[in-house]
Amino acid sequence: MSDLSPILQLPLLMPSQAQKHVTHNEALVRLDVLVQLVVEGFDAPAPPSIPAEGEVHVVGAGAGGDWTGQDGAVAAFTGGGWLFLPPCDGWLAIERGTGALRVFQGGAWAAPALGNLPMLGINASADTSNRLTVAADATLLTHSGSDHRLKVNKAGTSNTAVLLFQSDWSGRAEMGLAGEDAWSIKVSADGSVWQTALRVDPASAHITGEAVQAAPDDITPGRLMRADFGYGPGNLIGSVSQSGGLPTGAVIEAGAGYVRWADGTQICTGSFAETGLSLSTASAGGFAGTGIQVDFGTAFTVPPVVSLDLPGSAPALAKGADVTASGMAPVLWSAQSGTVDLSGRYLAVGRWF
Fold it and tell me: Considering the entire predicted model, what is its pTM?
């Protein structure tokens, strides 16, 4: 039977042994060193000149003096001399002052490997689904010199890479690549039914979703207006057009002698002049004459309503006008036959569709 324990090499009491207290005390000294092992330093090259009782070191490689030949051993100063304890795989030691932890493995003391951990919980319990779990009031990710980028990667197009926001562990919003390569923001009132508020097409960079107008006639309250469905400085004035009664072009179109509105209204204005208009046709107890044909700036769909102003046609009076969709001819009346000089202005209001 060995007189030392197999792991810590503690001296064992033997049958009929004299001075058992010596063996017992030696075992206690070893336990005093090894239990909750704290050392002054690792890899010390030489023993201190005046060690304190209970001072413990890990002997460095090639150390000299009283430590010669004790590379890697735990050296404890006790009873006025050095006690050397050869370490075993798995021993842990903490360095006083720094709190550095080292593990003895494979004949050397080294810091424990913290890379490639299968999971990590910080103030919380990690699991196979949430391999990194942090319970804290805040989490800080900062730069190491200049920039900082947080990356969320997925395996393929049909997979998901998102940030999920929860309330009492029930999903309320998420943003990212949800089952496709288009970036989106989704929201839910109950964690079960989700709506895509915004979706950005990766090819065109155009935005769609429940928060955006779906069609030109979509006036759902709270939705964002699409540039091609709304009006601003860039498309308020231009060529008007329509499809099914809905505007597909600008709001106002202005040309030579006409203005068109997106609602279908068209207004044409202009002036005319003619000399020697004959008033020779008997009409209403007097004589009438029809002036020259005046073309509108652009045609109407049906004959418009025309107003005439003839300040330079006295003594004749305006009786009306012969109006078509493309123009009009003023009709003058006078109590006496003869000729007059005709000049005036017109205002025609009608429809372009």
Answer: 0.61
